[in-house]
# Entry
Amino acid sequence: MENPYDLFDIRGRVALVTGASSGIGQSLACAFAKAGAKVLLLARRQAQLDATLQAIGAEGGSAAVLACDLLDSGCFADIAQRAAGPFGPPDILLNAAGINPRMPALQTPPEVWERTLRLNLSVPFMLAQCLVPAMRERHWGRIINIASLQSVRAFPNSVAYGASKGGVVQLTRAMAEAWSADGVLCNAIAPGYIPTELTASITAQPAVVAELATRTMVGRNGRAEDLHGVALLLASRAGEFITGQTLYVDGGFTSK
Ligand SMILES: NC(=O)c1ccc[n+]([C@@H]2O[C@H](COP(=O)([O-])OP(=O)(O)OC[C@H]3O[C@@H](n4cnc5c(N)ncnc54)[C@H](OP(=O)(O)O)[C@@H]3O)[C@@H](O)[C@H]2O)c1
# Structure
């Protein structure tokens, strides 16, 4: 009988991780590298990407930097070629780049709405459009999106963010329907609150942080490492029959 741990083996897979310069994307990029994948680190800030690259290298992992502004529509023309450069075409696309420009609904200008919807919702689809053809050729691919508590719960001052993350859940189903039969599975992870740059304004309010923890079933908020196991499941053969799903990794927040 096969060792069940082999099901989670991603050694030699090529993973493109957006948002790899900080927070959840950075943590998952390091986890994939530790699990033996060759990781392409995509974000805008070169210094932070270089630091992530160094950290991965210091642990014996393989990675390369792909500095890129995903809000620059010109970047999609050659992204598949650039991504394939260091290690060959990506097998796994993890869409973790995201923004949440918190502001009251009536004061949300059109450009903020559009930027948020574009980066959080449109870009994961556009990147998939660029990378899926090579995945289909090999009949193997994994797309992992990052949803949110705000995919199913409304929070103050987050109209654009909430709309984008609600969209991510349905985008995930729609991409799964389009490509699963070709071996390209698409799922999303919906984390609970995790302290990162994105949530710095929440983290600065201890009473709000404590209140969020009480709304979970386990009684604590999240850590980026809480997502490592589910990301590995969805990126590997272990997740072979899972597609179109959003897995809530939130300590029970959305079930309570
Ligand atoms: N933290 C939470 O509690 C939480 C909960 C649920 C879901 N999420 C989601 O998790 C994902 C990661 O968030 P995080 O909390 O880890 O936030 P974060 O630390 O602020 O990371 C966001 C990442 O997105 C990248 N990014 C932003 N604009 C970009 C652009 N124009 N082009 C390329 N990359 C860009 C940033 O890199 P550069 O600035 O270097 O470009 C950074 O690496 C987001 O989708 C977020 O919505 C977070």
Remarks:
- The longest strand covers residues 184-191.
- The two ends are 39 Å apart (CA to CA).
- The CA atoms of residues 149 and 192 lie 6 Å apart.
